[in-house]
Specification:
Oligomer: heterodimer
Distance between the termini of chain A: 88 Å
Largest sheet of chain A: none
Order of helices and strands of chain A: HHHHHH
Shape of chain B: elongated
Shape of chain A: extended
Structural class of chain A: mainly alpha
Radius of gyration of chain A: 25 Å
Distance between the termini of chain B: 56 Å
């Protein structure tokens, strides 16, 4: 009970910090706090496997990707973080109005039909082998009943990997001109060949 | 689940609010992508909450799919950002005009 409110306050504070931070690195730190707090909230909702996935995929993979791109972009000549990040003042009230409409829609929908929480009847409590949301439970639901979405997931990941390699794999990328020729001919040979004496 | 599910949904709504404001207001592409991750997370929180309310695993499966799509989106978005802004000193979404006719 108290843990939920602490985590909720932590999540809101870190989300606000993420959005308002001047430097992207600070935003990444705020996002990390947000993700870990969300994983704990998943645990309170008995979604153990998703909590672990949240930590592994989000704060393990995606945030590292963000940090790498920040390092890549700011490693050049110009300091990338000094760039003009003008929070366009005119758009702020418009943004708040639009987002507030979305929030009001969610609030009225939720409060108009309060949900009754069903009790968990089978499988035991959190932490036991076959509990609701455990790895076994999630896995059987994923591989028996939802096999097609799982295959679609694999396809999406494959397409995104190919797309990333196509976009960013080239040295200059498809957007810039290819200025340098390949230097494979100038490279020092790995094995020096002795001139053949005849 | 000692807290009423409405509180979880309200938390999800507030996070969505913050994320939408971030996407609209900020002009740094990295922070915009992070705000989009906030949006994905708030949607996931709603899905997992209702999965617990109606003891039903499909919400977990859907949240898993959302996590996968978020990972793919982050990878492709960051690749585009890295390619686009590799030579520009300032990172600003409004200044990208490579496709303007």
């Amino acid at each position: 009970m108290i843990a939920f409110w602490i985590l909720a306050l932590l999540m809101i504070a870190s989300a606000v910090f993420t959005v308002t931070a001047k430097r992207p690195v600070h935003s990444v730190v705020g996002l990390l706090v947000n993700f870990i707090a969300l994983a704990m909230i998943y645990l309170s909702l008995q979604a153990e496997f998703l909590a672990v996935m949240q930590i592994v995929v989000y704060s393990g993979a995606i945030l590292i990707l963000f940090v790498f791109v920040i390092a890549l972009l700011s490693s050049g000549v110009a300091p990338f973080e000094i760039g003009p990040d003008k929070m366009a003042k005119a758009t702020v009230p418009v943004a708040i109005v639009i987002a507030f409409l979305a929030l009001a829609g969610i609030v009225t929908t939720v409060l108009s039909a309060p949900a009754t929480v069903l009790p968990i009847t089978s499988g035991g409590t959190t932490g036991e082998a076959n509990a609701f949301g455990s790895v076994a439970n999630f896995g059987s639901a994923l591989f028996y009943e939802n096999l097609l979405p799982f295959e679609v997931t694999a396809f999406i990941l494959m397409v995104s990997v190919i797309g990333v390699v196509l976009i960013a794999g080239d040295e200059d990328g498809p957007l810039g001109p290819r200025r340098r020729k390949r230097r494979s001919l100038e490279r020092e040979p790995i094995v020096k060949r002795e001139p053949v004496v005849r | 689940m000692s807290v009423a599910p409405e509180n979880y949904i309200l938390l999800s709504g507030v996070l969505f609010f913050i994320g939408v404001v971030g996407v609209i207001v900020r002009r740094n592409p990295l922070i915009m992508l992070m705000s989009i991750e906030l949006l994905f997370n708030s949607a996931n929180l709603a899905l997992v909450t209702y999965a617990r309310v109606w003891v039903n695993n499909t919400g977990h499966i859907f949240a898993f799919l959302v996590i996968t799509v978020a990972a793919a989106e982050a990878a492709i978005g960051l690749a585009i950002v890295a390619v686009t802004f590799r030579r520009q000193p300032h990172v600003d979404v409004d200044e990208v005009a490579a496709l303007k006719g």
